């Protein structure tokens, strides 16, 4: 296995979780790290990786803008092959990373390579553009999926998302007052970021245990 992955959690975990980052922040961002730590803490083997445009920002090539999400599908599939998991694999990620995973999930699920899909803050639409939905493929999704979403996420709020035509294979965990990083305003919600991450991880573990693998 190459050093392109950040690995956490027990080596003998039943489920491995492969996570990709969002459009603007790397795999070791604070939000990705805290989410990975919470998921590893409940028993997942967590692997994080970066798309090439993000990895290039660490070099002299400089800052590259994110490409169109669908053009990253082959990179995600290549990461799965390189990771080489033998047991049940759940794919997903934060924001754009989860969106890319959602676009390749069904083909891989049919091949028996993927057991489920976990999205942390799914980008249902661009901020401020609620009519530009990114949900067409989610209406027919056949792979079991869990989307963890803050109720005030500007990419899709609790007021908006229930009106979308989504597959019944998708479960949504709503985190009260959470933003796109699942963070709440403690003085308003009564919850802390750690509270929401703990709930996310606990819910993801219970969901994974119900998967048909």
Short description:
The chain is α/β, with parallel strands linked by helices. It has six helices and seven strands, in the order ββαβααβαβββαα.
Descriptive overview:
With 213 residues, the protein is an alpha/beta fold. The chain is 30% helix and 17% strand. It has 6 helices and 7 strands, in the order E-E-H-E-H-H-E-H-E-E-E-H-H. It has helices spanning 30-41, 52-56, 73-83, 96-110, 186-189, 193-209; strands at residues 6-8, 16-20, 45-49, 89-94, 116-120, 145-150, 170-175. Strands 1-3-2-4-5-6-7 form a 7-stranded mixed beta sheet, sandwiched between helices. Strand 4 (89-94), helix 4 and strand 5 form a beta-alpha-beta unit. Helix 1 packs across helix 6 (193-209). The radius of gyration is 16 Å and the shape is globular. The mean pLDDT is 95.
């Amino acid at each position: 296995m190459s050093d392109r992955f950040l690995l956490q959690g027990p080596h003998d975990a039943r489920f491995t979780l492969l996570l990709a980052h969002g459009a603007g922040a790397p795999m070791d961002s604070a939000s990705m790290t805290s989410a990975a730590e919470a998921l590893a803490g409940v028993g997942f083997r967590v692997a994080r990786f970066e798309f090439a445009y993000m990895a290039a920002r660490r070099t002299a090539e400089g800052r590259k803008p994110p490409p169109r999400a669908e053009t990253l599908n082959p990179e995600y599939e290549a990461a799965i092959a390189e990771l080489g998991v033998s047991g049940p694999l759940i794919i997903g990620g934060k924001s754009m990373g989860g969106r890319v995973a959602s676009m390749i999930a069904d083909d891989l699920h049919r091949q028996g390579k993927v057991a489920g899909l976990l999205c942390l803050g799914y980008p249902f639409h661009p901020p401020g553009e609620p009519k530009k939905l990114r949900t067409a493929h989610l209406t027919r999704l056949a792979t079991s999926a869990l989307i963890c979403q803050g109720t005030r996420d500007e990419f899709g709020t609790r007021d908006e998302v229930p009106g979308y035509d989504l597959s019944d294979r998708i479960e949504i965990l709503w985190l009260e007052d959470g933003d796109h990083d699942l963070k709440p305003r403690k003085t308003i919600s009564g919850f802390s970021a750690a509270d929401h991450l703990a709930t996310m991880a606990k819910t993801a573990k219970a969901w994974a245990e119900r998967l048909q693998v």
